[in-house]
Automatic annotation (TrEMBL):
Origin organism lineage: Bacteria, Pseudomonadati, Pseudomonadota, Alphaproteobacteria, Acetobacterales
Family designation: Belongs to the SMP-30/CGR1 family.
Domain SMP-30/Gluconolactonase/LRE-like region residues, every copy: 20-264
InterPro entries, per database record: 6-blade_b-propeller_TolB-like, SGL, SMP-30
Protein name per the record: Gluconolaconase
C-alpha cells in the first residue's frame, strides 16, 4: 500500500491525556462526546461548545458505551454488559459475557440502524486468539446475546455500513480489517478481508463508517486516521499528534466534526516528550458527514 496522502493535522479538543482513551460517541441532544479511558476505569464527557468536561468512575476496565433508547448506555466491562446511567453514575450488570474465559475482556462496540449492538472481546494479555464478535438485542425479558465469529487476538472496530448490510471488524495485531454481510436475520456471512495494513503503517484499531460508506480507520502505532472507500481504496489520511490512535466519532450540527480518542499506553517517555498530548481527545473537520448515532432499541 502506498504511503498515505496526508492532507491535514488534527488539533487537541480536550487535553485529558488518558492512558487508554477509546470509544467516542456523539450525543446530539447534549452536544457532547462521551468516551472511555479503559485502563483508568473512567467514563468521560466533553462538551465542546462550553469547553466543559466531567467523568465517572467505572467498576472495572470500561471498553465502550453503546447508547440506549432511554438515555442510558450499555457499557462493556471485563465480565459483561452493564447499564450505565450518567444521571447518577451507576453501573448495573445486564448480561454476563464469556464467564468461561476470565482472561478475556470486552473491547469496542457500535449500534446499527436496526437498534442492534455489535461488540467484540479480546485476550487481555493480547496473546491468544480467544476473542469473538457478538451482537446484542433487547427483547421481551431482557437482553439477548448472539455469538457470530471467533479467533481474534484483539477484536476491534466494529462498524456497520449506512445501509446496514455490511459489518467491518478488525483483528488489530494481525493488521486485518474484515468485512461481513449481515443477513436480514442479523447473522454474519461471507467473511472476507477488506484490507490489510503493513506493520510499518500501524495497526487497525477502531473503524467507523460515514454516510457514504467510507471506512475511517484509526491506527495504533500509526499516528493517523485513514479514510478508505467502500472498495478499500485510500482517499486520504489525517495526522494525529499521538502515535496510538484508537477511534473516531462524528459530531456537531452537520456531523462533520470528527473527535478522535488516543492513548498513552505503550508510548516511550521520549515519544511522550515529543507528543505530550498523547491520550487526549483530538478533532478535525471531515469532508463527509458521519452517520447519526444509533441507539439500542428497547422492546416494549
Amino acid at each position: 500500500m502506498a504511503e498515505p496522502n496526508v492532507e491535514a493535522c488534527a488539533s487537541c479538543a480536550y487535553d485529558v491525556r488518558a492512558e487508554l482513551g477509546e470509544g467516542p460517541v456523539w450525543i446530539s441532544g447534549e452536544n457532547a462526546v462521551y468516551f472511555v479511558d479503559i485502563n483508568d476505569c473512567k467514563v468521560h464527557r466533553f462538551s465542546p461548545a462550553q469547553g466543559e468536561a466531567c467523568h465517572w468512575a467505572a467498576p472495572g476496565k470500561v471498553a465502550f458505551l453503546m447508547p440506549v433508547d432511554d438515555g442510558s448506555f450499555l457499557a462493556g466491562l471485563p465480565d459483561g454488559l452493564y447499564r450505565f446511567d450518567p444521571t447518577d453514575g451507576s453501573f448495573v450488570k445486564a448480561l454476563e459475557v464469556e464467564a468461561e474465559l476470565p482472561g478475556n475482556r470486552l473491547n469496542d462496540g457500535c449500534v446499527d440502524l436496526h437498534g442492534r449492538g455489535w461488540f467484540g472481546t479480546m485476550d487481555d494479555s493480547e496473546e491468544a486468539p480467544l476473542g469473538s464478535l457478538y451482537s446484542v438485542t433487547h427483547e421481551v425479558g431482557g437482553f439477548v446475546l448472539r455469538k457470530h465469529d471467533t479467533g481474534y487476538v484483539v477484536s476491534n472496530g466494529p462498524t456497520v455500513s449506512p445501509d446496514g448490510k455490511h459489518l467491518y471488524a478488525c483483528d488489530t495485531p494481525n493488521g486485518v480489517i474484515y468485512r461481513f454481510d449481515i443477513t436480514d436475520e442479523g447473522e454474519l456471512e461471507n467473511k472476507q478481508v477488506f484490507l490489510r495494513l503493513p506493520e510499518e503503517e500501524g495497526y487497525p484499531d477502531g473503524v467507523v463508517a460515514d454516510c457514504e460508506g467510507n471506512v475511517w480507520c484509526s491506527t495504533w502505532s500509526g499516528g493517523h486516521v485513514r479514510c478508505f472507500t467502500p472498495e478499500g481504496a485510500e482517499r486520504f489520511s489525517i495526522r494525529i499528534p499521538a502515535a496510538n490512535v484508537t477511534k473516531v466519532c462524528f459530531g456537531g450540527d452537520d456531523r462533520k466534526t470528527a473527535y478522535v480518542t488516543t492513548a498513552r499506553k505503550d508510548v516511550s517517555e521520549e515519544a511522550l516528550a515529543a507528543q505530550p498530548q498523547s491520550g487526549s481527545l483530538f478533532t478535525f473537520r471531515s469532508d463527509k458527514a458521519g452517520l447519526p448515532q444509533h441507539r439500542i432499541a428497547l422492546s416494549a
